[in-house]
Amino acid sequence: MMVTLLGATTLVLVTLAPWVLSAAAGERPGGESRRRAGGGKNLKSPQKVEVDVIDDNFILRWNRSEESVGNVTFSFDYQKPEMDNWIKLPGCQNITSTKCNFSSLKLNVYEEIKLRIRAEKENTSSWYEVDSFTPFRKAQIGPPEVHLEAEDKAIVTYISPPGTEDSVMWALDRSSFIYSLVIWKNSSSVEERIQNIYSRHKISKLSPETTYCLKVKAALLTSRKIGVYSPVHCIKTTVENELPPPENVEVIVQNQNYILKWDYTYANMSFQVQWLHAFLKRNPGNHLYKWKQIPDCENVTTTQCVFPQNTFQKGIYLLRVQASDGNNTSFWSEEIKFDTEIQASLLPPVFNIRSLSDSLHISIGAPKWSENKPVIQDYPLIYEILFWENTSKAERKIIKKKTDVTIPNLKPLTVYCVKARAHSMDEKLNKSSVFSDVVCEETKSDEYFSEQSLKNLLLSTSEEQIEKCLIIENISTIATVEETNQSDEDHKKYSSQTSQDSGNYSNEDESENKTSEELQQDFI
SS3 letters for 208-228? Predict the structure, then answer.
């Protein structure tokens, strides 16, 4: 009986053992596993995932939970907007550290991307989803590459854009980077900052045989991105050259020519001048072979050269000058920027005058631009008009934005003379033309009969008509007196106009020195 009972008990225990063992192993009925991480606890998801994008480098960093110790690994998935499913993120699978690089993934940097991460051990944690982001917006600008060349009193910097030549992140912006640098003598801590330079820049006015150090950073102003500085680069300037470079290079306009001037210390020298499209300096690479000679400025023996304005089309250029005594050659001068629109002359306007009895109507037109002159017609203009009676020197002034101008309250049958000039409203130009040629025009007569016409009419009539016209004569005399008085009043009114009037008139000496900016305040 005892044997039988013991056998039954053993049978029951054997029967229950698989369930008990599976429960102890963390399995639920049906074979479903519980998530756990050592000690029977669930494995928690990673936290505080950060995405760092520098140029084309994509780095992920995260914090592991306290439970994710030992042989825990981490894996990421990614998803693009057009995807329904998640895909394993290359470079970020089964990572044992808390950092991974997924730069190998081919992305549209202007398109959003989603990421998620989980921890894995004997089992896996739940997914932790990272906020979606657009790579270009998140990207930071890395340090540019810098190469230096030394002269006796200058250092030439060659700057390559951040990233690589095959950069996807900055593919559309490689020529849009602007650079700034900090330079100092190696023996001093005094720094000089130079802003907004091209990819090739000459730092002048340095000391010979002196070591200078510098660092450079890049920026994209349109995207409001400012990069980090490059490593520090140092170089020593050379022994002073026998011939110094030309200095104080400038361009002025005279008639239909440009005059390029510079200063030089020694006599009996010859000079040459070269030019380059300014936009080429924004592109990375060496552009020394792209400089071109100005035909009329080669081997000149004076410190200036003259060349026609049609030498250059509309645009921005760089100019440089070099000196030579036949055996020795100087370094090139500092490069100056030359903008044809800023240098160009603003020509005076042309206008037509139509006279009325008490006013002049002026229609202003743009000047006929010479083929040899750069065109300044894409900028808004204002017009300064001076007018006066032909028998007087008392000038009056009108400032107008409009091209149709009426000068009111004038005397009939009086010759008035007019001249005008144009002022640019654009701060970049800040130019004024010379005055146009003087044009004179007589106002028309009043529509009333003149006194002389009435007398002629009276002399040619009979006595009976004279008697009938006596009243007319009296009336006309009254009308003439009234007209004369009105004319005198108009003349007094015209002559005594002050700033309390419409503001269109002023004495010439009161506004002779007005700038274009001040003139804009006088718009009517």
Answer: CCCEEEEEEEEEECCCCEECC
Smallest Cα–Cα separation from 412: which of 386, 439, 448?
Answer: 448
DSSP codes joined into one string, 359-381: -EEEEEE-----TTS----SS-E
Which has the closest alpha carbon to 159: 140, 171, 139, 174? 174
**Burial group, residue 512, by CB count within 10 angstroms (0-12, 13-18, 19+):** exposed
CA–CA separation, 384 vs 522, rounded Å?
10
Would you tell me how many other CB atoms lie within 10 Å of the CB of residue 87? 12
**Residue 182, helix vs strand vs coil:** strand
The per-residue b/e assignment along 20-52, b for 16 or more CB within 10 angstroms, e otherwise, is eeeeeeeeeeeeeeeeebeeeeebbbbeebebe
- The secondary structure of 262-300 as a DSSP string is EE-SSSS-EEEEEEEEGGGGGSSS--GGG-EEEEEEEEE
Closest CA to 372 of 258, 252, 256, 251: 256
* pLDDT over 90 percentage in the chain: 38
Instruction: Please give the pLDDT value at position 430.
Output: 67
Q: How far apart are CA 360 and CA 489, in angstroms?
A: 19
CA distance 240 to 453: 92
**Alpha carbons 198 and 158: distance in angstroms, whole number:** 9
Closest CA to 353 of 343, 340, 363: 363
Q: What average pLDDT score do residues 241-262 get? A: 87
User: Residue 85 in 3-state DSSP?
Assistant: coil
Query: Tokens representing 453?
Result: 């016409």
Which residues does residue 147 pair with via DSSP β-bridges, in sequence order?
158
What is the reported pTM? 0.57
Distance CA 252, CA 343 (A): 7
Angle between helices 463-495 and 451-459 (to 10 degrees): 170
Q: What are phi and psi of 297, to 5 degrees?
A: -130, 45
φ, ψ for residue 508 (rounded to 5)? -60, -40
Give me the amino acid identity at 133.
F
Instruction: Please name the residues in contact with 423: beta carbons below 8 A apart, sequence gap of 6 or more.
Output: 346, 381, 382, 383, 384, 431, 432, 433, 516, 519
Q: Residue 205, by phi and psi: left (phi above 0), alpha (psi -120 to 50) or beta?
A: left
Region 121-130 average pLDDT: 87
Indicate the residue type of 458.
L
> Tokens 């390559």 correspond to what residue?
160
Distance CA 372, CA 105 (A): 55
